[in-house]
Amino acid sequence: MQAVSKVYGRGQGAVAALREVTVGIPRGSFTAVMGPSGSGKSTFLHCAAGLDSPSSGSVRLGDTELTGMDETRLTELRRKRVGFVFQAFNLVSSLTVTQNITLPLRLGGVRADRAWLDEVVHRVGLAGRTGHRPAELSGGQQQRVAIARALITRPEVVFGDEPTGALDTMTARDVLTLLREVVDTMGQTVVMVTHDPVAASYADTVLYLADGRIVDEMRAPTADAVAERMTRLGAYV
Ligand SMILES: Nc1ncnc2c1ncn2[C@@H]1O[C@H](COP(=O)(O)OP(=O)(O)OP(=O)(O)O)[C@@H](O)[C@H]1O
């Protein structure tokens, strides 16, 4: 992202959600984005992922410039080159695990590569569950399906918006361990918004947003160091 700004609304009511944000996220890294409520985290994620367009500045995915792309091409880019994991798992209740995972491929008119599907299912720990429907799975298992669905297209980046926000502590740790593994063993790039210092400690780098700006960056974070930094940002006041 190069000098990315995002302003919502106009005139007196205008809100600057991002102010000249410049950052490069390396391929194969795990990045957590933190900051107080309203600091611009979701806006950052949406602009980075091509879900929303900045008011000014430029966003690139690899060598592709997203700025100025029309909605049709952006939709295609999101389907093929980006994966998403949200707090709500957003699974289709009438479809099986396998059908949910392969949905992005089918929407794109692509057949699932059997070996890759098996590998993804195995990696997220869902072998033996592939015929189940979401309602027959625990919350953690449902989020694993969502992660597998995000990985199936071999995207350049997986974006997570509070991916563990709806899970209990133990289950959240399992899911974070899985995200860490996909970075370490598959070279996947992951960018995740979180409020949780423990979740952020699984990342390689934490970006701190405050009032629409990146105000700090922490490498090799620990949960204590992240919590302490957040307190100084006024996040817990
Ligand atoms: N569609 C919108 N229209 C107007 N203002 C918006 C819109 N979306 C976000 N904002 C404003 O932009 C600022 C940043 O919002 P954003 O959702 O990116 O923050 P956040 O850090 O993700 O917050 P939270 O942690 O509470 O989810 C906030 O002041 C918010 O009120």
UniProtKB/TrEMBL annotation:
CDD domains: ABC_MJ0796_LolCDE_FtsE. Keywords: ATP-binding, Nucleotide-binding, Transport. One of its GO terms (cellular component) is plasma membrane. The keyword Zinc does not apply. One of its GO terms (molecular function) is transmembrane transporter activity. Gene3D superfamilies: P-loop containing nucleotide triphosphate hydrolases (3.40.50.300). It comes from the Bacteria. Pfam families: ABC_tran. Residues 1-236 form the ABC transporter domain. This is ABC transporter ATP-binding protein. It comes from Bailinhaonella thermotolerans.
